[in-house]
Amino acid sequence: MSNTAIYQHVDVCTVDSITQTRDSLITELYQKHNSWLMGWLCRKLGCSFDAADLMHDTFSRVLQKDDLTDIKEPRAYLTTIAHGLMVNHVRRRDIEAAYLEEISHLSQAEAPSPETINIMIETLTQIDEMLDGLPGRVRSAFLWFQLEGLSHAQIAERLSVSVSSVRQYIAKALLHCINMSS
């Protein structure tokens, strides 16, 4: 066997060993904590179907992680992932409910198709994520300016601030959106 063949054999054995270790860690993590995580999610969400979906998504995230050997507190690790997914789930559910409420008064002829509803909810969710983290006044000023077409003076009056502050809020929101999209 040539040196190259030996090195390739060693590399294959190393990769196989790492893969087996990784698979064992994931299996152990799932077997020891899936029931606990499902119960935790059920208590938080009050719905076993949503809990099952989020548990699946949580372990999918774990599968995407390269190194599982650094997980010292498995339940805390799983809870952190599941909590983030749950927050996003609840936000999306709230956005969906608000949108459906908003279009509920439309006649059947005016009502958007299910595909359009899905696209709108996805778009609104993306906008919500993009604006997440902005201070309340900045977010409100930006939304009133972009969605309601209010002037800077009208927004300033609503917020009881100067027009200059409104300009700064909107500029800050735009910069935030640009940074989030890049």
UniProtKB/TrEMBL annotation:
Domain called RNA polymerase sigma factor 70 region 4 type: residue spans: 126-177
Keyword Transcription regulation in record: yes
UniProt similarity note: Belongs to the sigma-70 factor family. ECF subfamily.
Highest taxon, organism lineage: Bacteria
NCBIfam families hit by this protein: PRK09651.1, sigma70-ECF
Residues annotated as domain RNA polymerase sigma-70 region: 29-94
Species the sequence originates in: Methylophaga nitratireducenticrescens
GO biological process, one term: DNA-templated transcription initiation
Protein name (Swiss-Prot/TrEMBL): RNA polymerase
Keywords, in A-Z order: Sigma factor, Transcription, Transcription regulation
MF GO annotations: DNA binding; sigma factor activity
